[in-house]
Specification:
Structural class of chain B: alpha/beta
Mean pLDDT of chain A: 92
Order of helices and strands of chain A: EHEHEHEH
CATH topology of chain A: Rossmann fold
Number of strands of chain A: 4
Mean pLDDT of chain B: 93
CATH topology of chain B: Mannitol-specific EII, Chain A
Distance between the termini of chain A: 13 Å
CATH architecture of chain A: 3-Layer(aba) Sandwich
Strand order of the largest sheet of chain B: 1-4-5-3-2
Oligomer: heterodimer
Largest sheet of chain B: 5 strands, mixed
Low-confidence stretches of chain A: none
Strand content of chain B: 25-35%
Number of strands of chain B: 5
CATH architecture of chain B: 3-Layer(aba) Sandwich
Number of domains of chain A: 1
Strand content of chain A: 15-25%
Helix content of chain A: 40-55%
Largest sheet of chain A: 4 strands, parallel
Radius of gyration of chain A: 11 Å
Shape of chain B: globular
Number of helices of chain A: 4
Chain lengths: 90, 147
Amino acid sequence: MRIVAVCGVGIGSSIILKKNAERALVELGLTATVDAISMAEVRRDSREANIILTTVDLAQLLDGIGPEIITIDHVIDKHEIKEKLAKALL
Amino acid sequence: MIAFGEGSLAVAVSAADREAAIRASGDLLVASGRVTADYIDQMIAAVEEFGPYIVIAPGIALAHARPSEAVLETGLSLAVLSEPIEFGSHNDPVRLVFGLAALDHEGHLEVLAALAERLTDQQFVNSLLNACTNDQLSALLASERAE
């Protein structure tokens, strides 16, 4: 499974999302690759992703892109990410 | 790498609006030698292009642009605003504006993740908000690195 964490330019929120998602996946006993990428990259390269993790504001711009989108309200909130990944994957 | 360079922190910053708040964090990246002034315009262009997603948690923004020639060195800055500013986010209003400059997509990963982890601690956030001097801010953020 491939999860992509998306933010505008791929160096800020997406990096934090990636780290928190990786930790949550370990805690949930799941195996997946998590890549932090930018909005430009996700538009080019979303087909191979199973899940897109991103923020509410950016999710609106990705409407209809294909993979399931999980929106995160608080990027730094590990519990929110874990809860939402569990709901989507378990 | 020392994430917050000399001159990268400021308390009691007054900003009239979102652009001024981002500019303040960018000025601190310039002052600490991490970016050239062009980067500040790129930070503002990024938020205009993609919206207020840079507000990563209630009251906390992480202003940044993509790695470019304007980035001299990877680093962070922090402007603590004296008055909260609306960014147009569900996490408004914002008083902590971090600036981030990165040379590439991965080099700053650990530093940023550690900072994000620390920002989930409301007590830590409150102590940043209540810091009276730049030195106090520096001490708070330095204790983060020690952990």
